[in-house]
Amino acid sequence: MIPSHFNYHNPTNLAQVFALLSEHAGEAKVLAGGHSLLPMMKFRFAEPTHLVDLADVAVLKGIKVNDSNLLIGAMSSENDLLRFANMEQLCPLLFKATQLIADPQVRNRGTIGGDIAHGDPGNDQPAVMLALNAQFHLESSQGKRIVAADEFFHGTYQTALAADELLTAIEIPLEQANKRFGFRKLKRKTGDFATAACALTLNFNDGQCSDVRIALTNLAPKSFRAYQAEWLLNNHPLNQDTIDAAVELAMRACEPAKDLRGDAQYKTKMAGEMLKRALLDATSSDSQ
């Protein structure tokens, strides 16, 4: 299909972006990589009359590392993450999960900020950000604020972003980034959304888990943490009974929608299986 008529804008700095969003309030949408918005425009699920392309806003790109944090510009592509020096060592969960996003063409154009800000429960990065305890830098003409990933995702295509705000950067604590991790994703074919996926981080010493964060993808109206499963794993020695109980609690928290990838029962069962495999990966003797 063909999108409805729109006016195209190509700003080069944030001041121009915010001026356009203010001038065309309620009628403008920002364009990051385009892999989520453009298909919606073609099907006319979204019909902005003004499209604000962020491709030439240089301040939104780039990756920096300091003593305590990894700071990623929202317009950094998925392949930028994979090409960044030592990313596999700095944040192995992010590196592994990004390798499994869609296909090379999508990763070359799609941005981490677009993946997150779109609020699609089927996207991969939201659950990864929840597992990594990330914080999102939001900015508008009125100022800046930081919102934790735990507070950012509200529902399907619904986030904490106000209409005049941009997600400008993603901040990941290096202490969290270096924890043991697991990431498992079931999909029908290369390029498809996950049928079910699980991202988790934890500490593991003397057979006991601590600081467990479990996040699930495409299993509810938004990516979410399995809090009850986390609590159980944090408070009991890890064994087969504990794993089975945590899997059961995580499955109870799922609310998947039926689609071509399967019905709710199948998706819920696969959520449990992805959690089990991710947990075993994170606690195995050869895990980091």
Tags for this model:
alpha+beta, five-stranded antiparallel sheet, Uridine Diphospho-n-acetylenolpyruvylglucosamine Reductase, domain 3, 3 domains, Uridine Diphospho-n-acetylenolpyruvylglucosamine Reductase, domain 2, Enolase-like, domain 1, 288 residues, 13 helices, four-stranded antiparallel sheet
Shape: globular
Low-confidence residue ranges = none
CATH topology of the largest domain: Uridine Diphospho-n-acetylenolpyruvylglucosamine Reductase, domain 3
For the termini, the CA-CA separation is: 48 Å
Mean pLDDT: 94
N-to-C series of helices and strands: EHEHEEEHHHHHHEEHEEEHEEEEHHH
Number of strands: 14
Cross-sheet strand order for the largest sheet: 4-5-10-6-7
CATH architecture of the largest domain: 2-Layer Sandwich
Give a description of the structure.
By secondary structure, this protein is α+β, with helices and mostly antiparallel strands. The protein folds into three domains: 7-53, Uridine Diphospho-n-acetylenolpyruvylglucosamine Reductase, domain 2 (2-Layer Sandwich), CATH 3.30.43; 58-175, Uridine Diphospho-n-acetylenolpyruvylglucosamine Reductase, domain 3; 180-281, CO dehydrogenase flavoprotein, C-terminal domain (Enolase-like, domain 1). 36% of the residues lie in helices and 25% in strands. The chain contains 13 helices and 14 strands. It has helices at 14-23, 37-42, 78-83, 87-90, 92-99, 104-109, 112-117, 125-131, 149-152, 174-177, 227-235, 240-252, 264-283; strands spanning 7-9, 28-31, 50-53, 63-65, 69-73, 135-140, 143-148, 153-155, 158-159, 166-173, 180-186, 196-205, 208-217, 224-225. The chain has a five-stranded antiparallel sheet. A hairpin with a 2-residue loop joins strand 12 (196-205) and strand 13. Helix 11 runs antiparallel to helix 12 and helix 12 (240-252) runs antiparallel to helix 13. The longest helix has 20 residues, at 264-283. It is globular. It starts with 6 loop residues before the first strand and ends in a 5-residue tail after the last helix. The model has no long low-confidence stretch (mean pLDDT 94).
